[in-house]
Amino acid sequence: MDSKNEQSINNIPRLVIGAPQGRSGKTTFTLGLLRAFARQGIAVQPFKKGPDYIDASWHTAAAGCTSRNLDSFFMGKQEICTSVSHQSSGKAITIIEGAMGLYDGLDLRGSSSTAEIAKVTRTPVLLVVDTTRITRSIAAIVMGYQHFDAEVQIVGVVLNKVAQARHEKMAREAIEAFCKIPIVGAIPKDVNLAIPDRHLGLVTNGEMHQTESLLEYLADVICEHVDLNMVLTLAQSAPELPQYEGAFGPDLSIHSKNHRSITPKIGFIQDAAFSFYYPENLEALKNKGADVVPINALIDSQLPEDLDGLYIGGGFPEVFAAELEENRTLRREIKRAGEMGLPIYAECGGLMYLGRSIMTPSHNFEMVGLLPLDTQMESKPQGHGYTIMEANPDQNWFVEKTEIKGHEFHNSRVINLASNVKFGLSVKRGSGIDGQHDGICYNNVFACYNHIHALGCPEWAERMVRLATIYNQGKWAHIEKVAGQ
């Protein structure tokens, strides 16, 4: 197998992994493919279409390379292509896993669909088809997907959940005869080809002790039933990445830092309870001049020394609520720091953690208590999908009237909210905290259900580093004043 890694900046072997519908097996196929390439020494760069944190974390574990998200809702065309180009440098193949059905988007035009990412990046599509209780009719399905949009190039098919040899033979012959594209693989039915899920999708890979054995098993299945050489050949048929004139395309290489005499220290809570972070968000903070340090809310008893800011992402604090409650010393430290003006930016799970309590059907768990609210877990999503927010006046984090595009997906809702709470965002699309507002502001705290991506909201990192720098300056000015007395 050709393991050549050097590619020109835009000549990138790549494939989009799509499917007629969700639950067709895209993710398990993609994970097995990534691990199969990685363990053969073939450098592979994974991407996930859409704002999915969990699938991307599984990609990273499978490929041994940080997966990135591509989303045309809050990224421009050139931003998407620049990300693919930069992250794929030195890789032999790039794999972009789609979401839902290939053409499923926000509207009749298929905005923000997997197909749109394929078109923006001019990437060929490998279609994974669930063959359960269907044989010759598979060709009709594939043919429909081939001709639905002439700009989408479907170059091969993977048959999934094949029952037996005769089943595979009928499906393979029908597709090759009527659709004129190759069958790249045929994966048999297997109850072990699955990852447990919960209300937001798959469980995070960090929660599974058997992650490595599962990924190795998936790779074994792919190596046995999929032609990896053909996958590479199809990926190498991809044309050069396009360039879009006039579109905003940030330099995703290591940015030159702002030349400040101060390097603010910003902590981010990353553990089993809080794992939803886009790599670009953390990189943006570093590139703006911050020293970014991890914190484990489950086991760390105190905040890092000389902290100037705190970033708390999303995750599953309700699953680990007992452990979070048990760590009383850290909760007290965070509350005290927030009361003293430490800049804190919290998203979704972070918002829940900063409240008084998390209420599950069986128990109420005490949290930080910095914000005057409780959160209650529900059986169904309380907010799900893309969001558009507008920044309100008199808050420190965004310029007034700025339109902020993001996403939300949570099964909790805010209750017992104090009547005098100040909101930093007005909801134009989405649910937010109460259907109209999001972004609770208190001192230098900004806590919301909305998730943002630094490529779609570059001013966020600049503001956070600026607030952390101001906090740092004020802190040392106070120390010098006390020392001089």
How are the SSEs placed, and which strands pair?
Elements: E1 14-18, H1 26-39, E2 44-49, H2 53-63, E3 68-70, H3 77-87, E4 93-97, H4 114-121, E5 125-130, H5 137-148, E6 154-162, H6 165-178, E7 183-188, E8 197-198, E9 201-202, H7 211-225, H8 228-236, E10 265-269, E11 274-276, H9 279-287, E12 291-295, E13 309-312, E14 314-315, H10 321-326, H11 328-339, E15 344-347, H12 349-354, E16 357-359, E17 364-366, E18 374-377, E19 383-391, E20 403-410, E21 412-415, E22 422-429, E23 437-442, E24 445-448, H13 459-484
Parallel strand pairs: 1-4, 1-5, 2-3, 2-4, 5-6, 6-7, 10-12, 10-13, 13-15, 15-24, 16-18
Antiparallel strand pairs: 8-9, 11-14, 16-17, 18-21, 19-20, 19-22, 22-23, 23-24
Helix pairs in contact: 1-2, 1-7, 5-6
Which labels suit this protein?
single chain, 485 residues, alpha/beta, Rossmann fold, 2 domains, nine-stranded mixed β-sheet, seven-stranded parallel β-sheet, 24 strands, 32% helix, 24% strand, elongated, disordered N terminus, disordered C terminus
CATH architecture of the largest domain: 3-Layer(aba) Sandwich
**Can you list the strand order of the major beta sheet?**
12-10-13-15-24-23-22-19-20
> How many domain regions?
2
Instruction: State Rg.
Output: 24 Å
| Continuous helix count | 13
| Number of beta-strand segments | 24
